């Protein structure tokens, strides 16, 4: 299946991860009471009935809790999402990994002018933390104990299924009364004594309708936390602390969110399985670092875009800060499908404005996209061949970013850029800007973000430059030592007459890196996933991956096979290397982008409301 056809069927994957799975939640040892693949429970399941499905053995760090619930033997489908709460115990979704630090908001946090941010944002469950402080979940209230009792009774078939139903009803009622309800009461008291410093903004469209209560509940029970700040090439990580009630449907979401777009102090996240075009639960969460606020934005209106009417452009929602400090626009660009189910050159822009006369609701604008076309496939049947009247278009954005206060760019790192100089206009117009000469690559060469990246850099008021970096020769059979890192710049990208130019420090071969690493102990690993610095013209950040250890990483959740380095291309030397500490755990693997949002932290917050670390409470 070619790249264009894949997009129509696999649309709305998060950001550049077109081939990545949506993040599930990392499950820690405390949540292993639902690991029904253990030998004791496998024995119990075998003794129960042939109708009970055998537990699939999966590593807990590599699969979300939904996958665990699907794998539970003898557990009726409608019970699984709720029963997971019995197994959460003190699970804090990865508090032992590199994302968590003791005191997140330090002087370093507010002074960092540029950071490398992990797009994957894990949940920190406050209710589970309180439950753990109170002693956790007693063994008698676990799913494991229920199945063991049923197995010991020698029941099988329908009789065993009915017994499991009755036992789970009883255990859930006890768990709710003895564990969840007291923990929720304690949490309410804590929040009453220590009100949140985060401003909660309810979007106008979320005030009414059948989902209004759900959006309010989501907003009241969620707060961003900057749990790690590091100078690049170290990684900066966000978390979302959630305090939703134990019986809330919001707890059925995957245990993490995804940062899709960012501009200055504004970050936009997908929370829940929702993506445009799919009827899944979820919402957009907009975090404003300047105002220390979060806003819940509802999904696109039902039936305005479906998997049959529109395709994904590739990346997710884009963000444009059109008025400092905190006026923003969310933009979903969704190409329409042609009658073959493939991407066409017409598209719908769905826009959400935070201020102005049309604020607080999704508005639609139609546009024409000057997309490159796909050559006809001579091997296809005549009836499937592209005709001049109905060409096949090819474009799949790896990233989207703002240029100034009105312009947005969607970049296919293999083909070029779609530039809209004024997305706020009544009739937005797009133009296509090709990549530098010789850089256009056929889609068969794989994902562009593995060996290329681009970003916009401010050169002063109303002056901007787009930078592009490519690993020349990557994936083309060359030894990694002969692969060259090459950079270009596009000044004033809003001017149609502007052209790409090679940067002053145009290129360097990776073979030069290991000649003199200045004592940094640079591991001899192949670089990939370059990220351009938004602050330093000649600096590029690269990921180093030990492919032999990747399978071990996937199985254990460890990050021993990855590290990151900063490279000064002008001086042709490695500046620093970031290695994960032994025992660091992280799943999914980091997906990083450069941002300057940390320089805005607390700038618009009164001193009495500055962000601080949550107070520690002790329960007697």
Provide a concise account of the structure shown.
It is built from 10 helices and 28 strands. It is of the alpha+beta class.
Number of strands: 28
Helix proportion of residues, in percent? 10-25%
Quote the beta fraction: 25-35%
Coarse shape: globular
Sheet with the most strands, sense and barrel status: 10 strands, mixed
> What is the CA-CA span between the terminal residues?
61 Å
Radius of gyration, CA atoms, in whole angstroms: 25 Å
Mean pLDDT: 76
What class would the helix/strand composition place it in?
Answer: alpha+beta
**Total helical elements:** 10
In terms of per-residue confidence, which ranges show pLDDT below 50 for 5 or more consecutive residues? 1-110, 607-620
InterPro entries: DUF1618
Protein name: DUF1618 domain-containing protein
Biased composition (Acidic residues): 375-387
Region (Disordered): 74-100, 371-390
């Amino acid at each position: 299946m070619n790249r264009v056809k894949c997009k129509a069927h696999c649309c709305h994957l998060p950001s550049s991860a077109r081939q990545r799975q949506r993040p599930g939640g990392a499950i820690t040892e405390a949540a292993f009471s639902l690991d029904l693949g253990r030998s004791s429970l496998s024995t119990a399941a075998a003794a129960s009935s042939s109708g009970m499905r055998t537990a699939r053995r999966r590593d807990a760090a590599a699969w979300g809790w939904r996958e665990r619930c699907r794998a539970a033997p003898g557990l009726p489908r409608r019970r699984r999402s709720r029963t997971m709460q019995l197994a959460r115990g003190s699970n804090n979704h990865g508090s032992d990994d590199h994302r968590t630090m003791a005191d997140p908001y330090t002087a370093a946090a507010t002074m960092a002018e540029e950071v490398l941010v992990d797009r994957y944002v894990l949940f920190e469950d406050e209710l589970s933390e309180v439950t753990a402080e109170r002693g956790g979940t007693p063994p008698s209230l676990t799913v494991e104990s229920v199945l063991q009792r049923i197995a010991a009774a020698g029941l099988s078939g329908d009789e065993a299924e009915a017994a499991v139903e009755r036992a789970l009803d009883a255990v859930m009622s006890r768990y709710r009364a003895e564990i969840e309800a007291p923990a929720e009461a304690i949490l309410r008291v804590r929040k009453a004594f220590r009100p949140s410093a985060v401003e909660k903004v309810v979007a106008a469209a979320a005030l009414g309708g059948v989902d209004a209560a759900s959006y309010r509940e989501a907003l009241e029970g969620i707060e961003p936390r900057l749990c790690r700040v590091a100078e690049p090439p170290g990684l900066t990580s966000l978390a979302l602390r959630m305090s939703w009630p134990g019986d809330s449907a919001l707890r059925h979401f995957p245990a993490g969110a995804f940062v899709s777009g960012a501009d200055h102090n504004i970050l936009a996240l997908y929370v829940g399985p929702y993506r445009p075009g799919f009827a899944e639960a979820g919402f957009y969460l907009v975090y404003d670092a300047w105002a220390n606020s979060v806003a819940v934005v509802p999904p696109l209106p039902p039936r305005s875009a479906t998997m049959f009417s529109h395709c994904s452009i590739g990346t997710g929602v884009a963000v444009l800060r059109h008025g400092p400090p905190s006026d923003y626009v969310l933009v979903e660009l969704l190409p329409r499908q042609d009658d073959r189910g493939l991407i066409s050159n017409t598209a719908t822009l769905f826009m959400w404005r935070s201020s102005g006369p049309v604020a607080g609701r999704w508005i639609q604008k139609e546009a024409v996209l000057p997309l490159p076309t796909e050559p006809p496939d001579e091997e296809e049947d005549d009836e499937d061949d592209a005709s001049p009247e109905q060409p096949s278009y090819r474009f799949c954005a790896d990233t989207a970013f703002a240029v100034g206060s009105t312009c947005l760019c969607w970049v296919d790192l293999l083909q070029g850029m779609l530039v809209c100089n004024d997305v706020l206009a009544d009739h937005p117009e797009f133009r296509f800007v090709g990549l530098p000469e010789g850089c256009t690559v056929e889609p068969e060469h794989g994902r562009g973000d593995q060996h290329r990246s681009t970003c916009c850099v401010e050169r002063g008021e109303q002056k901007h430059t787009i930078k592009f970096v490519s690993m020349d020769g990557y994936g083309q059979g060359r030894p990694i030592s002969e692969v060259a890192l090459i950079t270009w710049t596009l000044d004033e990208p809003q001017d149609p007459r502007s052209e790409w130019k090679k940067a002053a420090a145009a290129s360097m071969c990776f073979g030069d890196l290991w000649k003199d690493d200045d004592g940094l102990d640079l591991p001899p690993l192949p670089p990939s996933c370059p990220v351009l610095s938004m602050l330093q013209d000649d600096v590029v950040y690269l990921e180093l991956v030990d492919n032999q250890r990747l399978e071990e990483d996937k199985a254990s959740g460890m990050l021993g096979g990855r590290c990151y380095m900063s490279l000064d291309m002008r001086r042709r030397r490695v500046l620093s290397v970031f290695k994960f500490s032994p025992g660091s755990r992280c799943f999914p693997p980091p997906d990083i982008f450069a941002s300057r949002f940390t320089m805005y932290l607390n700038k618009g917050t009164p001193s009495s409301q500055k962000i601080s670390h949550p107070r520690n409470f002790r329960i007697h």
